[in-house]
Amino acid sequence: MNEILYVMEVERDWGDKYHFEIQLSITIFLLAYVGSIFRNIRGADPWHDKASFRLPLFALLVVMILSIIRVERDGDYLLHQYLNGNYILSEGVVAVENKQDKDGHSPPDLVHVGSSSFRIQYYSNTDAYKQTIENGGVLREGAKVRVYSVEDKIIRIDALD
Could you tell me which residue, 143 or 23, shows the higher pLDDT? Predict the structure, then answer.
């Protein structure tokens, strides 16, 4: 009997998925605000001058909206392709060529299943499989698996007997 080890889920919450984008947005907001303070040659108080907040707020909104749209499209697209049967099926024993460090400051996991190769980046912003070996991933050396993928992104993993 085959056991399903992983199935992609399209998430809609504001958990860890948007953590990086939120930090980036706040950083851009603060940099733009500090820039607007130095740019303010009129000598007005930047805390009470509404014009000082326009550029930082605009930058904050643009970064947040673009990051949310990118992630939503990734998950929706992958799910649509999977449900319509537009995926590549790879079966075989997992061969690991490279392991990413737990903190993510190294090249991604590079694993081979059958004739397919997959790069798995733990800190990527995708709904596809991203559990590296060092972070509890199931694609370990010698495991017998069936992998469903769309454009080299893993959307389902089954264990084989």
Answer: 143
CB 87 within 8 Å of CB 149 = yes
Please report which residue ranges of the chain form alpha helices under DSSP H: 19-39, 54-83
- Which amino acid type is present at position 18? Y
- pTM for the full model? 0.63
Nearest CA to 122 among 140, 99, 104? Answer: 104
Report the chain's C-alpha Rg in angstroms.
21
Q: Print the domain residue range for 29.
A: 16-83
55 and 21 housed in the same domain: yes
**Range of weakest confidence among 15-19, 76-80, 98-102, 118-122:** 15-19
| Residues 96 and 155 placed together within one structural domain of the fold | yes
Residue 52 contacts residue 37 (beta carbons within 8 Å)? yes
In the predicted model, what is the mean pLDDT of the chain? 79
Measure CA 94 to chain center. 23
Same domain, 106 and 66: no
Q: Which of 5, 143, 125 is nearest to 70 (CA)?
A: 125
Q: For residues 24 and 81, which has the higher predicted lDDT (pLDDT)?
A: 81
